[in-house]
Specification:
By secondary structure, the protein is mainly alpha-helical. The chain has a two-stranded antiparallel sheet.
Length: 194
């Protein structure tokens, strides 16, 4: 072929196809095959090493017999396993939440029981203190009632007791929760000595 002659149509079409194969403008539409070194025959010597095979087995890339596991084919199995793990995690989290709720209820019941016992103890102490004060008041009334009847007759015409509680006769003004009463020591001492 000479340089000056035009190329035939078939030749022009063939060259256009070759040039189109080198076109880099549409890379998004062209899908290249993925490279997997496990299928590369030139890497076979490297993957026959026992340490490398142990590592590949641990990472889940090969099975026990040394066969390559295709992840694209097993995606559905992997997804099922992932769902099972998610379910197990949710079940475990619910179990822990239920356990925490149960612990809280038990602690609250214990606290309420301790609070109830404490309140009962305080109530019993108050009742006991009230009974003691009633006994003290009845004892004071009974001891002063006998002495007051005799001394009131004797002191009816006398002057009222002096401020401060002591008068010339030796009387003491006693305070009770119900008011003021006159207690005469001289009369009560005479009754106890007889």
């Amino acid at each position: 072929m000479s340089l000056g002659k035009k190329k035939s149509k078939n030749e022009q079409i063939r060259l256009a196809k070759l040039e189109a194969g080198f076109a880099m403008g549409n890379l998004n539409t062209v899908k290249l095959r993925e490279y997997n070194s496990l299928h590369d025959p030139n890497m076979r010597h490297f993957f026959e090493n026992q340490k490398v095979q142990a590592h590949l087995y641990k990472t889940g890339q090969i099975d026990r017999h040394g066969r390559v596991i295709d992840l694209d084919k097993n995606k559905s199995k992997i997804r099922i396993l992932e769902r099972e793990f998610e379910r197990a995690e949710t079940i475990e989290s619910r179990r822990q939440a239920d356990e925490m709720e149960m612990r809280y209820r038990v602690q609250r019941k214990r606290f309420e029981e301790l609070e109830r016992v404490r309140k009962e103890e305080v109530l019993q102490k108050l009742k006991h203190d009230r009974m003691l004060s009633k006994e003290i008041i009845t004892t004071m009334r009974s001891s002063t009632s006998g002495g007051l009847s005799k001394t009131k007759k004797a002191t009816k015409n006398k002057a009222p007791p002096a401020i401060g509680g002591l008068d010339g006769e030796g009387s003491i003004e006693a305070m009770t929760p119900y008011g003021t009463q006159d207690v005469f020591l001289s009369d009560s001492l005479l009754e106890t000595s007889v």
